Amino acid sequence: MVDGRTIANKKRAHPTEARICPICAKVFVCRKWKRNVCCSKACGYKNRKVADPETFKKRVSKYWKEHGHPRGMLGKTHTPEVRKRLSETHKGNRNSNWQGGISKNPYKDTFTKQLKREVYERDGFECVLCGWNRYIVAHHIDGNKLNSETDNLVTMCRSCHMLLHSGSLE
Which one, 10, 48, 50, 147, has least CB within 10 Å? Predict the structure, then answer.
């Protein structure tokens, strides 16, 4: 229901206001916290004095080529020589994530989806460190992939799991 003040949402009502488009003079309703000036994208382009969206994209692209893109290498590629050198300098023990080659070791056959599900159910489907219930993984407490006993497994979210293995958490 739109009454000039609120738009009913499934969860709560949001304060709105009626605004007038400076290009077509159409009255439109939007949420107060939105910065909408115009009623549509077409009017927005006209308001910014952009004749055509494609022309605008080309102009921005040209500016980035001349002045450098704000995200550095976006749209560029390294030469094959540079790629090979970067690859060699980050291999093996020169990589910050190197753990002595243990990542290639396989898990035990008993480390199955069913076992992980049992661990998740035991821990209430949430991370034991932060309590988050999304993107959960089963973590081996002793770090041994071959020890897949339920008392050696604990539920963690990906974020806490990554922090634990990077050494940020103890």
Answer: 10
pLDDT band at 110 (very low <50, low <70, confident <90, very high): confident
Domain that holds residue 64: 11-69
- At CA 126, angle to CA 170 and CA 167, rounded to 5? 20
User: 3-state DSSP call for residue 157?
Assistant: strand
Rounded Cα distance between 1 and 165, Å, is 51
pLDDT in tens, 146-158: 888 999 999 999 9
Rg of the Cα atoms in the chain: 27
pLDDT one-digit tens code per residue, 111-166: 899 999 999 999 999 999 888 888 999 999 988 888 889 999 999 999 999 988 88
Compute the distance between CA of residue 133 and CA of residue 123 in angstroms, rounded to an integer.
10
| Structural domains of the chain, count | 2
Q: Which helix (H) or strand (E) holds 28?
A: strand 27-31
Domain for residue 150, yes or no? yes
Residue ending a domain, choose from 47, 69, 91? 69
d(CA 147, CA 110): 9
